[in-house]
UniProtKB/TrEMBL annotation:
Start and end residues of each GST C-terminal domain: 93-223
Alphabetical list of InterPro entries matching this protein: Glutathione-S-Trfase_C-like, Glutathione-S-Trfase_C_sf, Glutathione_S-Trfase, Glutathione_S-Trfase_N, GST_C, Thioredoxin-like_sf
Domain of life, source organism: Eukaryota
Name recorded for this polypeptide: Glutathione S-transferase
UniProt organism field: Paecilomyces lecythidis
Family of the protein in this entry: Belongs to the GST superfamily.
Stretches assigned to the GST N-terminal domain: 5-86
Entry-linked Pfam families: GST_C, GST_N
Amino acid sequence: MASLKPIILYGHAGGPNPWKVAMVAEELGVPYEHKLLDFTELKKEPFITKNPNGRVPAIEDPNTGITLWESGAIVEYLVETYDKDKKISFTAGTPDYFHAKQWLHFQMSGQGPYFGQAVWFKVYHPEKIQSAQDRYINEIRRVSGVINNVLEKQDWLAGGKYSYADVAFVPWYEAVPRIAADQIDLEKEFPKLYNWLNRIKSRPAVAKVLKDKAEVNAAAQKK
Ligand SMILES: N[C@@H](CCC(=O)N[C@@H](CS)C(=O)NCC(=O)O)C(=O)O
């Protein structure tokens, strides 16, 4: 996609959601410029006008003029606008198309918020509330069980091939060792899921984004 101007992707070094968008853009060969913001910049101008919710990711696509936020909506925009060959998506209106959306909605409503709350109560909440920690760690386990069971019967979540629905889950799983290394052993408890994550992470596009993420995190730690 040599003729495209780079999409501006507003992200953050540590937060998982923008990296999901980067992975999809890399898979599609859509050029992007990843602007890493500090959390202190998100609730004020100029960012708050781009995303009234004051969170990342958001994108600005100079090729179409759109500004968009919410990572799931951005992923859908990217595949519907740029995945003409259906490399990681499906023909509109087919069952596979809707199944991929179903998994993306599950990722957005069932994985992201619960894994996010697990981080909050394990790492950031000023008081240690065991019941809240247990609730969200158990949700990580429950969501992982759902995926693992499905992957007992198939290699990929939707349509018999790797798609955006699979890669969407990767960034939050990358956070699991930090949240629950002492409580959840993905390899042992959810071997199909563990193997699936490794297959996705070994794809060149995903490996590149994970390398970028590791580099910016290492740089952020040195500051
Ligand atoms: N549902 C939103 C969640 C966005 C979100 O929570 N982003 C985090 C970083 S991964 C953030 O901006 N946190 C800053 C804050 O909460 O102030 C999405 O998927 O885009």
